[in-house]
């Protein structure tokens, strides 16, 4: 017994310190590594910096630490004309992993050409990365990725809300740009999903409160961004997405199915605006004959039955559509990418059990980033990398980010905006994205600085190999178009 006690005491002395190590994050840290990647047939050497930078409270004390990964091309010494892209994902509560490892970064998730996970997990070089034309920093907001609150007494509302998120991230970006000496560089914000709400607000906040002006904002699969569209407007806007999804699954009548998607979508869009929306607005005053004719035409463009449409008074919710479209085959379709099919516990019901797209993506991304961070970036921590972090409750009040983006554009003649949307995205559908663009610039007088790009994939259009190449090239073209000639004044 005495020997056992002595052994236990020695064990605790030797290993007790390790056993009691806290899972914490330093407010400031960085690890630099050097690499190279072949992009569009040319070698691009670069430095990767993985680290943390603080968020300070009003007394100048660190209250949170944000994890970031910064990629700089190393064979370019003059950064004054070198674009800097600042990248966010959304959620809210989502890390920057998605666009980092699957879209614009120099390393690419190992998946098949349609975006499905494969083993062994890991990454490979990204031959389509925009690192050839721009340096990139990927930022994880508080409680996402490795980012954490440092002061447990800080009010969570400091971080978790539309406007508080924008305010503290603007301060963080200002510090990052200053530390990296990038004030002279052409600057761009890119956000995906809720990240579009974030960057739409950030560009206005940075411009008006930090006097930092941007050349471009890229909105990937944008949210509503506070732009009003309730009731019939939003419901009618879903119809073209229904058409695209039904076409992909071969559920449309031959007259539509036998034509190309690019050919039929403008027709569906015109029906949604010119016929479906007015019918929905009429509501109960719509005659029985009119209602029946609209439902029949809606069935023609959506792939679901006229009876189910009438049962919803023409306003078919997306949740029902995902369950209904392939119900006869015992399958559901995905929300974030409706090319993905799922199997529910039972065929009956008005909504699916899970999103088959999202579960597939989580399967691929989580292992890959943990391998990449430790083995390639050499960033070691015992913290869990939160793909989706605890950020609730989230204050969604007073959202005006889409309108704020429009104001920032009017104030800054250099500022360009591009939307990128997947036709099969049912979470942030492409036609509502077009609607947003029209109302960011309601006069149409800035149309030479706005653009829309659509892809035959879903919320993360870049997961499809063909669209990965195309969408990155669209970003390159956008950066080139929004560059300003030396000594060109910012004026109308």
From TrEMBL:
<keyword id="KW-0325">Glycoprotein</keyword>
<keyword id="KW-0121">Carboxypeptidase</keyword>
<keyword id="KW-0645">Protease</keyword>
<protein>
    <submittedName>
        <fullName>S10 family peptidase</fullName>
    </submittedName>
</protein>
<dbReference type="InterPro" id="IPR029058">
    <property type="entry name" value="AB_hydrolase_fold"/>
</dbReference>
<keyword id="KW-0732">Signal</keyword>
<feature type="signal peptide">
    <location>
        <begin position="1"/>
        <end position="19"/>
    </location>
</feature>
<keyword id="KW-0378">Hydrolase</keyword>
<dbReference type="InterPro" id="IPR001563">
    <property type="entry name" value="Peptidase_S10"/>
</dbReference>
<dbReference type="Pfam" id="PF00450">
    <property type="entry name" value="Peptidase_S10"/>
</dbReference>
């Amino acid at each position: 017994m005495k020997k056992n006690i002595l052994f236990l005491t020695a064990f605790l002395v030797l290993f007790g310190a390790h056993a009691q190590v806290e899972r914490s994050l330093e407010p400031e840290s960085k690890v630099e590594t050097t690499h190279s990647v072949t992009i569009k047939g040319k070698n691009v050497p670069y430095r990767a910096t993985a680290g943390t930078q603080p968020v300070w409270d009003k007394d100048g004390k660190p209250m949170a630490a944000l994890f970031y990964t910064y990629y700089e091309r190393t064979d370019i010494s003059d950064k004054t004309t070198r674009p800097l892209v600042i990248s966010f994902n959304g959620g809210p509560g989502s890390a920057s992993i998605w666009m980092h490892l699957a879209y614009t970064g120099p390393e690419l998730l190992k998946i098949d050409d349609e975006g499905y996970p494969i083993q062994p997990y890991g990454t490979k070089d990204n031959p389509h990365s925009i690192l050839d034309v721009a340096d990139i920093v990927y930022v994880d907001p508080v409680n996402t990725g490795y980012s954490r609150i440092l002061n447990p007494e800080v009010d969570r509302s400091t971080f978790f809300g539309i406007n508080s998120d924008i305010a503290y991230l603007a301060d963080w970006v200002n510090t990052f740009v200053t530390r990296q000496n990038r004030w002279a560089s052409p600057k761009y914000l890119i956000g995906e999903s809720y990240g579009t709400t974030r960057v739409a607000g950030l560009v206005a906040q940075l411009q008006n409160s930090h006097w930092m002006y941007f050349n471009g904002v890229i909105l990937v699969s944008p949210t509503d961004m506070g732009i009003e569209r309730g009731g019939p407007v939003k419901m009618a806007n879903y119809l073209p997405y229904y058409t695209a999804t039904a076409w992909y699954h071969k559920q449309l009548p031959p007259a539509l199915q036998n034509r190309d998607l690019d050919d039929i979508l403008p027709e569906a869009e015109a029906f949604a605006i010119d016929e479906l929306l007015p019918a929905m607005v009429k509501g109960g005053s719509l005659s029985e004959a009119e209602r029946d004719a609209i439902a029949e035409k809606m069935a023609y463009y959506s792939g679901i039955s006229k009876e189910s449409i009438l049962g919803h008074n023409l306003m078919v919710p997306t949740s029902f559509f995902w369950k209904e479209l392939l119900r006869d085959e015992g399958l559901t379709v995905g929300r974030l990418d409706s090319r993905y099919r799922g199997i529910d516990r039972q065929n009956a019901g008005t909504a699916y059990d899970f999103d088959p797209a999202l579960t597939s993506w989580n399967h691929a991304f989580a292992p890959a980033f943990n391998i990449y961070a430790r083995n390639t970036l050499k960033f070691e921590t015992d913290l869990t990398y939160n793909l989706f972090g605890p950020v609730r409750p989230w204050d969604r009040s007073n959202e005006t980010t889409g309108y704020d983006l429009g104001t920032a554009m009017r104030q800054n003649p250099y500022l360009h905006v591009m939307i990128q949307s997947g036709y099969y995205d049912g979470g942030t559908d492409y036609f509502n994205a077009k609607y947003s663009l029209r109302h960011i610039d309601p006069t149409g007088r800035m149309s030479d600085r706005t653009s829309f790009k659509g892809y035959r994939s879903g919320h993360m259009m870049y997961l499809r190999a063909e669209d990965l190449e195309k969408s990155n090239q669209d970003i390159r073209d956008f950066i080139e178009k929004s560059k300003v000639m030396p000594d060109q004044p910012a004026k109308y």
